[in-house]
Amino acid sequence: MSDITSKIAVRPSLGALANPTRFLNLVRILLPWLWVVTIALFIAGLWLSFAAPEDYQQGRTVRIMFIHVPSVWVAMFAYMVMVSSALGVLVWRHPLADVAARAAAPLGAAFTFLGLITGSIWGKPMWGTWWVWDARLTSFLVLLIIYLGLIALWRAIEEPAAAARPAAVFILIGAINVPIIKFSVDWWNTLHQPASVFRADGPTLSPEFLWPLMVMALAYSMLFLTLHLMTMRNEILRRRIRSLQITTARRAERGQVE
């Protein structure tokens, strides 16, 4: 009985991993392995992408899909990570929830920007223009604006605890835009092509295009996960340094008063 109790005590629970120190130790162990997996997936994905045949309509430009589509998926996934974190702040008061949301915002903005740029490059030969106020493109641009607005909000409020709740509310309101991005091609008549992978009747892409796309999507996802953990680590350390600076300043003020 005592052996079982000791094993239970040693095994960390999810609540214990929420402790910033335990989280930092876990990140230190995971990061090297995550980088290895991420690099391996990118090598495989890029090799498959360049090996894919030319499309009978789009020619070589179809290969932009292997960069554009995963960046769009990860940009939306990053926002859903922020939505989960916002719920963690408002409902469960998770100690790392605000850290996770704050770390995901610049990464989500970067993937959104990449999606817009590659989409414009792809759209020029296909549509004859760099940009149209298409429902999908416009709603995706709104996503970038939301990301930038959240980053500005966090920077405007110096105290992280004071910024956590307003940012969480902002994130949940902005989540309305995510289903608009997803279903805009179904709700409105747009230039953007409809979904060809995640469909109720299965993907419509041929395997020689589907496999490189899925490998690249996995590589992008692993890149986001790795960078997200790194950014969370940096945010925790930044807050610790700030806390130490405030404590030192208060002690100095007390010393001057005495």
Question: How is this structure best described in words?
Answer:
This protein has helices at residues 2-10, 14-17, 20-51, 65-92, 97-127, 135-156, 160-174, 177-187, 207-257. It has 258 residues and is an all-alpha fold. The chain has one domain: Four Helix Bundle (Hemerythrin (Met), subunit A) (Up-down Bundle). The chain is globular and about 75 Å long.
Core attributes:
mainly alpha, 258 residues, 9 helices, 0% strand, globular, disordered N terminus
Portion of residues in beta strands equals under 5%
The CATH architecture can be given as Up-down Bundle
* Helix-and-strand structural type: mainly alpha
| Assigned CATH class | Mainly Alpha
Shape: globular
Q: What's the average pLDDT?
A: 87
What's the count of strands?
0
Separation of termini?
56 Å
What's the story with the biggest beta sheet? none
Helix tally? 9
* Uncertain stretches: 1-12
Oligomeric state as shown: single chain
Integer-rounded radius of gyration: 22 Å
**String of helices and strands:** HHHHHHHHH
Named CATH topology:
Four Helix Bundle (Hemerythrin (Met), subunit A)
Helicity range of the residues?
Answer: over 70%
Q: Provide the domain count.
A: 1
What is shown here, in short?
The protein has 258 residues and is mainly alpha-helical. It is 79% helix and 0% strand.
What's the SSE blueprint?
Elements lengths: L1 H9 L3 H4 L2 H32 L13 H28 L4 H31 L7 H22 L3 H15 L2 H11 L19 H51 L1
